[in-house]
Amino acid sequence: MPENRTDVVVIGAGLAGLVAACEALDRGRTVRIVEQEGRRSIGGQAWWSFGGLLLVDSPEQRRLGIRDSVGLARDDWMRSAGFDAEGDEHGRRWAEAYLDFAHRELRPWLRELGVRLFPVVGHAERGARTPGGHGNTVPRFHIVWGTGPGLVAPFTRRLRDAVADGRAKLSFRHRAERLLVEDGRVVGVAGDRLADDVTVRGEPSSREVVGSFDLRAESVVVATGGIGGELDRVRSLWPERLGPPPREALRGVPAHVDGSGLGLAEAAGAALVHGDRMWHYTEGIANWDPVWPGHGIRILPGPSSVWLDHRGHRLPSPNYPGFDTLTTLAHLRSVGAEHSWFVLTRSIVEKEFTLSGSEQNPDLTGRSLRRLAQRVLPGAPAPVQAFLDHGEDFVVARSVTELLDGMERLGDGDLDRAAVVAAIEERDAAVADPTSTDPQAVEIRRAREYVGDRLVRTAAPHRILDERHWPLIAVRLRTLTRKTLGGILTDLDSRALGADGTPVPGLFAVGEAAGFGGGGVHGSRALEGTFLGGCLHTGRRAGRVA
Q: Is there a contact between 20 and 221 (Cβ–Cβ < 8 Å)?
C-alpha cells in the first residue's frame, strides 16, 4: 500500500470505525485508520462499556418467557423518540432499519464472530410501563459475555490480521485537522502527528506536535464520537427542555471525546443536525480511582431505592431508579438540583447496584463463572464495596440521625431532614402494603415477577427503616455526561449528506458522530442498548459501500 494513499480512511479507532474498516476489508478494500490517541485506546468508548445491546425477540428473551416483537419495539422506540423536527425523517428511517437489524441480523452476525451473550436479559429504561412513561415495555438489554472488551476483540483481531498481510494500517497519534476536498469531493484527510505517549487508556495524552500527515483515499469515514468529554460544549448546546445546564458535571467519557470530527465534516459540506439532543445520566458518582479528569461512573440501579432531590423530597412518578433517564434529568434540573440522593439499605445495595463499565464488572469482563457466582452470595460485589469504602458520594450509617448528618455534610445546605424521613416512611408504608397503588411499590412488585429481575436485580421488598437490613446508605448522585444523540446527517448507506439532502461525495459518518445514524436515530430519547448497537449497525452499513 502506498504510504499516503489507500482506498478507505477511517478517522477514529472506536467500535464504529473498527466495524467500518473490517467490512471494507472484507470487500477487498485497503484501509487506513487514523487515531489521535495511542494504540492502547483502540476500541474507544465501547471498550469502557458494560456491553449492553438492544435485541428484539431474541432466544435469550424467549427462554425467559419475554414476549417481544418488532412491532412492540417499534411502538416503544417511536413513542420515546418523539420524532417531531425537520430532518427527523432520516432518523426515523434509521430507527426502522435498526429494529430490523436487531431482530434478524445482529445476533447471528455476532455469533459468527465468536461473541456470546449473558443469558439474563436486563430491563433497562423501563419507564414505559408507567403512565406516560418512555422506554422499554419488556426487557431487551442483552449484555455481552466479556462486556465492552469482548465486543471489541473480534474486530481488533481481524484488523491485526489485515495489518499483517499489508491490507490495513493503523496510524495512532495522528490527529485529523481537516478533510481534503477537490472539486466538491472529499479525497482524504490531513493533520498533525503527535508525539508518542505512554499514558494508559483514557488518561489525558500529550498534544505535542512532531510532524504532519496527508492521506489520500477514495472514501473517508468519520468515526470520531460525540462531545461528552467537553463540558463547556455540552453546556453550550444544552436544550431548554432539560432545564438549565448543570454548573458541575462528571465526565462519563475521557476528555478527548470532544466532537472535533463534527467540525471537520461540517467544513467539508456535511450537515450537522439536532445538536441539542443528548443523553446524560442522573445516577453519576465520582470514581474513587479516576482515570481521566472528573471521571464519573453510572449506577445501574434496581427499582427499590427511594430517590430524593437535593432538598430531600421524593421524586414524582415516573422518576424511579432505572425508569426514565431524561424525564428524571429534566425534573432535577427544573428544581435546581445539582445533585440528588438514593437512600437504601445494605440488602438493596447488595442485590440492586451494578456499576456501568467493563472495569467495574471484572466477572463479566473476564468471563469468570466463579466470580459471577459470587453475585448471588451475601455481600456487595467487590467493585460496589470499594465505592462503599472509598467513594466520596457515599454515606454509610447505623442510625437515621447519622445518615442525615452525613447527607448534610455532602450536600449544599438545603437538606430538609424532616422531608427525608417523611419520604422514607411514605415509601416504606407503600412497600409493606401488598395492595398499595403507590407507583414505585407497584413497579417493585412487578419487577419481582420477572425471573431475571428476581434473580439478580431486585431485592426482596422490605422497609428501609427495618434495622435487620441495615446499615443505611445514602448516595449523592450527580449529572454524568455520556452520549450525543445528534450529529452528521447520513443516509442509510452512512453517506454524509449536505444541507440540501444530497450526499457529500466520498464522505461517510458512523457511530456517535452520525447520531448513530441519520443524525439522530434515537430522536429525543434512547431505549438503552442502542448505542453500541448503533455503532455496529452504522459501521456495517458504511463498510459495505465505502
A: yes
Which residue spans within 336-429 are E strands per DSSP?
340-345, 354-355, 394-397
519: left (phi over 0), alpha (psi -120 to 50) or beta: left
Task: Look at residue 261 and tell me whether its pLDDT is greater than 90.
Answer: yes
Please tell me the number of Cα atoms within 13 Å of 240 on its side-chain side: 0
CB atoms within 10 A of CB 528: 23
Cβ–Cβ < 8 Å for 319, 228: no
Distance CA 275, CA 515 (A): 9
- Would you state the pLDDT for residue 36? 97
C-alpha distances in Å from residue 266, one per residue of 186, 192, 255, 510:
12, 19, 22, 14
Nine-digit cell string for 281: 445520566
Report yes or no: 420 and 342 within 8 Å, Cβ to Cβ: no
How far apart (Å, rounded) are the C-alpha atoms in residues 205 and 111?
A: 35
pLDDT tens, 164-206?
999 999 999 999 999 999 999 999 999 999 999 988 999 999 9
Cβ atoms of 227 and 249 closer than 8 Å: no
Write phi, then psi, for 373 (nearest 5 degrees).
-60, -25
What's the CA gap between 529 and 515, in Å, rounded? 14
In angstroms, the CA 25 to CA 12 distance is: 16
C-alpha cell at 339: 445533585
pLDDT band at residue 377 under the 50/70/90 scheme:
confident
Question: Rounded to whole angstroms, how far apart are CA atoms 214 and 188?
Answer: 7
pLDDT number for residue 2: 65
User: What distances in angstroms separate CA 386 from CA 287, 328, 383, 432, 458, one per listed residue?
Assistant: 10, 27, 5, 31, 21
- State how far the alpha carbon of 241 is from the alpha carbons of 19, 85, 167, 274, in Å: 34, 14, 48, 13
* 423-447 per-residue burial string, b: 16 or more CB within 10 A, e: under 16: bbeebbebbeeeeeeebbbebbeeb
In tens, the pLDDT along 470-502 reads 999 999 999 999 999 999 999 999 999 999 999
End-to-end CA distance of the chain: give it in Å, rounded.
18
Query: Is 355 strand, coil or helix?
Result: strand
**Hey, what amino acid is at 540?**
R
- Give me the amino acid identity at 158: R
Cell of 392: 466520596
Other C-beta atoms lying within 10 Å of the C-beta of residue 460: 12
Coil, helix or strand at residue 475: strand
Cell of 539: 459501521
* 120-130: burial string, b at 16+ Cβ within 10 Å, e else: bbbbbbbbbbb
Q: Residue 51: helix, strand or coil by DSSP?
A: coil
**Do the beta carbons of residue 2 and residue 213 sit within 8 Å?**
no
pTM of the predicted protein model: 0.96
One-character DSSP codes across 245-269: PPSS-EESS-TT-S-HHHHHHHHTT
> Cα–Cα distance between 154 and 158 in angstroms, integer?
6
